[in-house]
């Protein structure tokens, strides 16, 4: 039964929005990354993302990563400037060994903003961490 499923607490895994320069378009843009600061690799990652505002909703995106090695990051998606005013959710499920982990990472509306950019110590870059 669903109530019998025990999910351990997610630790040392983050989702971040980084404001980066794109050489191809000669402009800055927001990109979403998943960060693994664990000493072990994450296996079979499933990421489901969507955004919503009071009147609009984005399409749902699904991404699978076979493996995210220890102490690394991976690009998930580009985020259009129009969507920074939305609540953006990233539902992340993965395995470490035989244990399944899950967490919903949320960027509240307007939290992805140049004004809110801070140093992300886990990767040594500037950006915004999801809650």
Note down, in words, how this protein is organized.
- The chain has 131 residues and is mostly beta strands.
- Helix content is 0%, strand content 56%.
- It is built from no helices and nine strands.
- Strands 5-2-1-9-8 form a five-stranded antiparallel sheet, with no helix packed on it. Strands 4-3-6-7 form a four-stranded antiparallel sheet, with no helix packed on it.
- The two termini are 29 Å apart.
Helix/strand layout:
Elements: E1 13-22, E2 27-36, E3 42-52, E4 61-68, E5 72-79, E6 87-96, E7 99-107, E8 118-120, E9 125-129
Antiparallel strand pairs: 1-2, 1-9, 2-5, 3-4, 3-6, 6-7, 8-9
Q: What is the beta-strand fraction?
A: over 45%
Helix-strand sequence: EEEEEEEEE
Overall average pLDDT:
94
Report the end-to-end length measured between terminal Cα atoms: 29 Å
Oligomer: single chain
Coarse shape: globular
Any key phrases for this structure?
four-stranded antiparallel sheet, about 130 residues, 9 strands, five-stranded antiparallel sheet, mainly beta, single chain
């Amino acid at each position: 039964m669903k109530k019998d499923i025990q999910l351990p607490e997610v630790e040392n895994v983050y989702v971040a929005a980084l404001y980066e320069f794109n050489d191809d378009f000669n402009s800055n843009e927001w990109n979403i990354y998943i960060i693994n600061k664990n000493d072990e690799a994450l296996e079979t990652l499933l990421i489901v993302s969507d955004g919503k505002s009071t009147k609009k909703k984005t399409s749902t995106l699904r991404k699978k990563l076979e493996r995210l090695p220890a102490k690394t990051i991976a690009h998930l998606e580009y985020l259009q400037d129009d969507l920074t005013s939305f609540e953006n959710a990233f539902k992340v499920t993965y395995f470490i060994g035989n244990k399944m982990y899950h967490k919903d990472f949320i960027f509240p509306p307007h939290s992805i903003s140049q004004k809110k950019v801070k140093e992300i110590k886990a990767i040594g870059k500037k950006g915004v961490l999801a809650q």
